[in-house]
Design brief:
The structure is a homodimer. Helix content of chain A is 32%, strand content 19%. By secondary structure, chain A is α+β, with helices and mostly antiparallel strands.
């Protein structure tokens, strides 16, 4: 059955039903109230992705009520935890006029298990909230956080977000979900299927298919609880920096880094940051240059020469027994010492008695949430600066690193934009994030940024590199690139979607997955 | 539509069509040829799980042909790689008379990537085959193997099997699948969705839902290719043994072991082995005792006192830089040294120049496949010995370890059987495998073994412990225990099943998942 656009009559009836079920305070429909749920970096002109109203249920039962009403009235709901995924569209829905199902009010840390080192959280729990909770109860456990701490832990995890401790692959560090399906049924994954389960948050697979991944980057259910693995504080915490002089040193580094990642010598997720990106954490562009077009080579060189910067710098950290950490430091120094002109430096802390850390990079690698790096979006536009992410996954090799760097730089420079980029390095892969930064009040620059991003998606795919995440505005385009066997992945996603959500109410269009009525 | 039992007419027509499509040599239907595809440890009397015929396609196209014909004739196919999963039913199908879709002929190692350390294999590739291939091409990479090396790597992984190197969580060490769905469509997961993909076997998630887990322990598709992560040979390989005097030392050990697992001091998957299980690798029971009923305490004590045994012994290993490994050894010795009467011992090898290792435990922890531990099934029955596995996942704590040990021992001893058990310890959980060993020619003992296993499934679930795998004969019973919200997991599994396989041809009953026509 073809989906009918949501007319004002249907919208009003559904809105009234939601108000009845959730109470007035849980429904936001006035224009100013909706501002926090728009794409914060939307272009200044033209139609964009507009929330119709916002629903903020306070319990699993209220989530079930929302889905029941959405099915009855055939209106789409667009789910998020906090809705702070700003480089990818924030809380805004793919289908304008959707009800945003925002879970900020479900913000309880339900359990902390000190022995097996995990927490059970609701989707409104921010990284800040869990951190505060752990400190308040005197827990000795560390958590993993992304660069900005204001997001939902569940939301970030489900979008395959990353952090920078040894548990930084957040999807891999989750264990055990509770999910409300589109039909209102409440499912627990893995060993959570046992009513009396003792292993829900320590063993991932249960018996039968492992289904947790199905609820990540999808529109197949609303995750209402999730187990988050934590780690005991290490005896020794040693954050390090590697500064590289030349752009091409990136390639030398990647070949040295790969074996150190694979064997765990470096156990966290290092971030390799280019000159512009590094500097954008501290200053705006006009402190360096006020001309048009990308920064000239001489200015880039000047930025690279600033203290603690370089053509590239890598932040990383070591954790554990002091003697093991000291030996890892020697191995790392020996490996990176072969890169001409490079500099390695470390700080060293007692993990059980951390001092107040000033450097946000040292904080984030110790799992302490922060908002310091939010500055980066102000490169061009000050308070009105924005960014979108171009985020590709590749092997950790010189060839792949150079290829994706050159591709992104060429497209950005071609659009008149500076190349601001990082590589986030995992055990077996790395993600290159091109931070496409622009002034949201500059229509031409914003338009150029979006166009450049879309061009990169296509040229990267032709070279074999796929996006791991995407902004609302090019979710379809990204899905289009996954073309093996005439888009077998899309056919599969659609088949599951139709089976689980026959009325197509849950987040239509998320990651290019459209319910039958919209196709 | 209700599934009709496969009558001889329908069977014969389907068989003829399979012969036409695959060729005579790829279809086994004679009684003696089928012997290798029966449950090797079936009870001596009564109906059991009988293969109708065996299909051995040699290519993805032939797998597609098999599924097309199965759909046309509405006959079930039961998939396995090698079909060597002997403690759980071997190659035998859940529904007697099914066509066994056995993938032994698809046995090519398609790629070894030395740089990013992975292999791409077909489902007929055994652990032995990949090992031989790696040595033949001069690869420096190590693999992970389970105790018996004759199984399919893909089959073992999909059944959530484990190995004993740092990559021993096989499902976690897989990256990127190709799957033939019931309708014949060929899907590649993750970044494999990009036709030109460079990251298929290094990055797990792709863009959109992470679906790989869906094809494990399920009947949703036939996996025809899979990426297997390997590891560079470590500078130093140090297998270790810990011997514990008393049964209750298990509890002391678990509390010492948990933090060492969580922080990676012990990076592989240790196995804690009880006295009977340890001895069964070397001798049969009648060398110790010929009486009825479980071994008396004095005999158990005598076995515990044999060289390299104990009430419990733990095998484990350290890998990497020699100085780090030496420090890990000190930490391990200090931790375990607090357990009265315990003994820790180590061997030490150059990982780049391993000698011929005689001890099968040292081999398996270096990823060298072996069949040495197959001896264990001969405890009672000699050549006709068999076993079934009772396999529960729990947290790594003294309380949980004691509870599951006591539960299994009580049921086994109550059935007149010896308690033979191991704990396989992961980073955050452990699996207690009760090795339920019996003489397959002794009808009463075999019957007692199956009954005890089923009783354990139920009493473990009541205490909150779930099976992670199960024999054909109690797949339904295990699925029954996953009862949260009136069996929401089962409803979910069935919904996916019906969407992907509307005719119910793929492995009906696998892990308690039945197609609509059989429910």
């Amino acid at each position: 059955m073809k989906h009918e656009p949501i007319g004002p009559g249907r919208f009003a009836k559904a809105l009234a039903a939601f108000r009845d079920a959730l109470g007035e305070e849980a429904v936001i429909a006035d224009r100013s109230g909706l501002d926090d749920f728009r794409d914060p970096f939307a272009p200044p002109t033209g139609d964009w992705y507009e929330p119709g109203a916002v629903l903020q249920p306070g319990s699993v039962e209220q989530v079930q009520a929302v889905l029941r009403i959405a099915n009855e009235h055939s209106v789409p709901v667009w789910t998020n935890g906090q809705g702070r995924n700003n480089g990818y569209g924030g809380a805004a829905p793919r289908v304008s006029g959707s009800f945003v199902l925002n879970l900020r009010r479900m913000n309880t840390v339900l359990e902390v298990n000190e022995e097996s080192a995990y927490a059970l959280v609701e989707p409104g729990v921010r990284f800040f909230d869990l951190y505060d909770h752990l400190r308040a109860i005197g827990s000795k456990l560390w958590m993993s956080v992304p660069d900005l701490g204001w997001g939902s832990i569940i939301g970030n995890t489900l979008d395959h977000g990353v952090g920078y401790t040894p548990m930084g692959d957040h999807m891999n560090s989750q264990c055990g979900m509770e999910v409300v399906l589109a039909n209102g049924d409440v499912l627990r994954t893995g060993l959570g299927g046992l009513t009396a389960s003792k292993g829900w948050h320590v063993y991932k697979y249960g018996c039968g298919p492992a289904i947790d991944g199905l609820f990540s980057q999808s529109n197949y259910g609303v995750v209402t609880k999730m187990g988050v693995q934590l780690m005991p504080a290490p005896d020794c915490y040693m954050p390090g920096w590697l500064q590289l002089k030349k752009d091409s040193d990136l390639e030398l580094l990647l070949e040295k880094l790969r074996p150190l990642m694979m064997d765990g010598t470096i156990p966290n997720q290092p971030m390799i940051i280019n000159n512009v990106c590094g500097m954008s954490a501290f200053t705006q562009r006009d402190a360096w240059y006020t001309g048009e077009g990308p920064l000239p080579p001489a200015i880039l060189e000047q930025i690279s020469q600033q203290p603690m910067l370089g053509a590239w710098v890598m932040r990383f950290a070591l954790y554990g027994d002091e003697r093991i950490v000291e030996r890892q430091r020697e191995i790392v120094e020996a490996a990176f010492g072969t890169i001409p002109g490079s500099q390695v430096s470390f700080s060293k802390y007692d993990g059980h008695n951390l001092p107040e850390l000033d450097n946000p990079h040292e904080r984030v690698q110790a799992g302490i949430p922060s908002m310091a790096l939010d500055q980066m979006t102000r490169w061009y536009g000050g308070e009105k600066g924005g960014h979108i992410g171009f985020s590709s996954a590749t092997p950790i090799t010189a060839v792949d690193g150079a290829a994706i760097r050159d591709l992104v730089r060429k497209e950005l420079n071609g659009a008149g934009l500076d190349y601001s980029g990082v590589f986030i390095v995992g055990k077996r892969n790395m993600i290159h994030v091109g931070l496409v930064v622009f002034d949201t009040e500059d229509a031409a620059q914003t338009e150029a940024a979006y166009s450049a991003c879309k061009a990169m998606v296509k040229s990267a795919a032709r070279q074999g590199y796929g996006e791991y995440r995407s902004h609302l505005d090019f979710m379809d385009l990204v899905a289009d690139q996954y073309d093996f066997n005439n888009h077998a992945q899309r056919r599969f996603h659609e088949k599951i979607k139709d089976a689980l959500d026959p009325n197509g109410i849950l987040s239509p269009g998320k990651q290019g997955i459209w319910p039958e009525g919209y196709r």
